[in-house]
Amino acid sequence: MNYKAILQYDGTRYRGWQVQGNTDNTIQGKIETLLTRMAGEPVEVNGSGRTDAGVHAAGQVISFRCQTDRTPEDICAYMNQYLPEDICVLSVEEAAPRFHARLNAVRKTYVYRIWNAPVRPVFERKYMTWIEQPLDVDAMRRAAELLCGTHDYRAFCSLKKFKKSTVRTVEEVNIEHLGKEIRISYTGDGFLYHMVRILTGTLVEVGEGARKPEDMSTILMSMDRANAGKLMPPEGLTLECVEYEDNLKK
Amino acid sequence: MNYKAILQYDGTRYRGWQVQGNTDNTIQGKIETLLTRMAGEPVEVNGSGRTDAGVHAAGQVISFRCQTDRTPEDICAYMNQYLPEDICVLSVEEAAPRFHARLNAVRKTYVYRIWNAPVRPVFERKYMTWIEQPLDVDAMRRAAELLCGTHDYRAFCSLKKFKKSTVRTVEEVNIEHLGKEIRISYTGDGFLYHMVRILTGTLVEVGEGARKPEDMSTILMSMDRANAGKLMPPEGLTLECVEYEDNLKK
């Protein structure tokens, strides 16, 4: 049977989503170890995408195949019973035989949270990046509009060599100012390596007055990483949700 | 000079507010050590009240006397520079000579947060108590009304011997249902030892159907701890704010 599950995790103490060699301090590693123990046979887990070390997920989607007599609800309960307190499973359901969490994802939303206040955050310190200087949110919104659309985003990617297309469609960049929090949501069909954190760093530099909103188009067209802003730290970033074509939901 | 300051802290890794013997793992201990170092002479800090081990504060108020050439803003910046990431100072101001954070407090608000959902909280796990079974919030609200007023609250106190009055005025118990969170705010002129956590435990038992709202009056009148509900764990509790008479604010 093929399954789809939705996970949440606090990425603070992990080396990211993807299994890396022998070090098992990854979310994928934790999940695969657990499902392998449950099924009594090796289970491979596919995530909708990798999240970097320190990045969180409120709605990471995974798919995996395994043979078990348990119902999806039982699998979910089993996983939550043994997972550490910083990872949980929101739901498990049977999926169409060809469903694959990464290959079939059509839309993802990431949220970058900034604590913009003179005093650092205490309760949200693991989920927000602190910026003391007041940011010009209106200027950031004007810049964000220019970053949307279908473009080659390689200027906003940390990789230096590209084997695959670096063209992506960013449908929306929404910036909310909620008290001391500035919350930037990015929705698109996919994001390059470090892309959300570099887009955010560039928007922050606009908010600081160091760049103008209209510079965004020039940066995009330059296709040169050196022209974009800084890479923001991972703790402010959360993978919010992943969407699939309706006919693959089940 | 006499000062008033407002603090926030994540109480997770502390043994509570109050200095206890040699063990310095208390919030008061951290603050006194820091101010003593800053002033070059012993500084004694008075909090508006003790918070227990594991309890948080979003607006703990303190007062302290010290001689320094620094402005209140400089004291605030100095403290935030050296405090650990789970404690911060929101503000420091000069206070009236007779201002005392505990003796002059006229109103306090505590918030108890419950995560009421089938799956445990990941991001809010250190600030909420998880209750899986759906609670009847309407019944809890009816019970909460009966707990307000001016009463002898010793049935809701963990102490067994009382030297001082156990009469308090609870002005309001407000229960909000915000998605998966049930947020109970208590406002009153003061609270006995463990009182907010026992009131919450009793309300939770009403929400579970194990007690009726109208039992609250009987419990209050019995003045017997054995008749009230369980003591809730500390991590769900936050001291939200402390109010003073206007003429003592400065």
UniProtKB/TrEMBL annotation, chains A, B:
Spell out the molecular function terms from Gene Ontology.
Answer: tRNA pseudouridine(38-40) synthase activity
| Protein keywords | Isomerase, tRNA processing
Please write the reaction equations for the catalytic activity of this protein.
uridine(38/39/40) in tRNA = pseudouridine(38/39/40) in tRNA
State whether keyword tRNA processing applies.
yes
Judged by the first EC level, this protein's enzyme class is isomerase
Q: Sorted alphabetically, which InterPro entries does this protein's record hold?
A: PsdUridine_synth_cat_dom_sf (IPR020103), PsdUridine_synth_TruA (IPR001406), PsdUridine_synth_TruA_a/b_dom (IPR020097), PsdUridine_synth_TruA_C (IPR020095), TruA/RsuA/RluB/E/F_N (IPR020094)
Q: Where is the active site?
A: D52 (nucleophile)
Q: Where does the record place the Pseudouridine synthase I TruA alpha/beta domain?
A: 5-102, 143-245
Task: Output the superkingdom of the source species.
Answer: Bacteria
Q: Per UniProt, where does substrate bind?
A: Y110
Q: What is its EC number?
A: 5.4.99.12
User: Which Pfam families does this UniProt record tie to the protein?
Assistant: PseudoU_synth_1
Q: Name the Gene3D superfamilies for this protein.
A: Pseudouridine synthase I, catalytic domain, C-terminal subdomain (3.30.70.660), Pseudouridine synthase I, catalytic domain, N-terminal subdomain (3.30.70.580)
| Role noted for this protein | Formation of pseudouridine at positions 38, 39 and 40 in the anticodon stem and loop of transfer RNAs.
NCBIfam families referenced in this protein's UniProt entry, alphabetically: hisT_truA
Similarity field: Belongs to the tRNA pseudouridine synthase TruA family.
Q: How does it assemble?
A: Homodimer.
What's the protein name?
Answer: tRNA pseudouridine synthase A
Q: Which organism is it from?
A: Hominiventricola aquisgranensis
